[in-house]
C-alpha cells in the first residue's frame, strides 16, 4: 500500500514539475542561468585551489610523508592508513567532493 502511494506521489510531483517548466520556460531559464552564475562565481573558485594543491602534494610525495607521520595516530583511532589524515583534512577544508575524489585517488 505504501509503495502505491509513494509511486503516485512521485508521478504527480514529476508531472507538476514538468508542466511548470513547460508553462513558465522564462522563469526556468532565469533560474538555470542564476544557478550557473552562482556555481561559476562561488563554487568553482573556492574548490579549484584545493584540487590543484591536492594534486601537487600527491604528485611530489608530500602525502606519503604525511601518511607515515600520521600512521601511529590514524591506525589505532580510525583503523585507516596514515594517508587518511590528509584525505580527512582536505575533505574538511574543501568539502565532500574533494574528500571523495582524494579517497578514490589514494585508494
Query: What composes the largest sheet?
Result: none
Counting structural domains, the number is: 1
Mean pLDDT over the full residue set: 91
Tally of separate helices: 5
CA-based gyration radius: 22 Å
Gap from first CA to last CA: 43 Å
Q: pLDDT under 50 segments (min length 5)?
A: none
Percent in helix: over 70%
| DSSP strand content | under 5%
Shape: elongated
Class computed from helices, strands and strand pairing: mainly alpha
According to DSSP, the number of beta strands is 0
Q: SSE order in H/E notation?
A: HHHHH
Write a structural description.
The protein is mainly α and 107 residues long. Helix content is 90%, strand content 0%. The chain is elongated. Pfam families: Gate. It comes from Bacillus cereus. This is Sporulation integral membrane protein YlbJ. Keywords: Membrane, Transmembrane, Transmembrane helix.
Layout: helices, strands, pairs:
Layout: H1 2-23, H2 25-59, H3 62-78, H4 83-94, H5 96-105
Helix pairs in contact: 3-4, 4-5
InterPro entries: Gate_dom (IPR011642)
Domain Nucleoside transporter/FeoB GTPase Gate: 42-103
Keywords: Membrane, Transmembrane, Transmembrane helix
Provide a quick synopsis of the model:
Residues 42-103 form the Nucleoside transporter/FeoB GTPase Gate domain. Helix content is 90%, strand content 0%.
What are the key terms here?
mainly alpha; Sporulation integral membrane protein YlbJ; 107 residues; 0% strand
Amino acid at each position: 500500500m505504501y509503495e502505491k502511494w509513494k509511486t503516485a506521489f512521485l508521478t504527480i510531483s514529476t508531472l507538476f514539475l514538468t508542466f511548470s517548466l513547460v508553462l513558465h520556460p522564462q522563469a526556468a531559464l532565469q533560474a538555470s542561468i542564476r544557478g550557473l552564475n552562482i556555481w561559476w562565481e562561488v563554487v568553482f573558485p573556492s574548490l579549484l585551489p584545493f584540487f590543484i594543491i591536492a594534486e601537487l602534494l600527491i604528485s611530489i610525495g608530500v602525502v606519503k610523508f604525511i601518511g607515515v607521520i600520521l600512521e601511529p595516530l590514524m591506525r589505532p583511532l580510525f583503523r585507516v592508513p596514515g594517508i587518511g589524515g590528509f584525505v580527512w583534512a582536505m575533505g574538511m577544508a574543501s568539502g565532500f567532493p574533494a574528500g571523495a575524489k582524494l579517497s578514490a585517488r589514494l585508494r
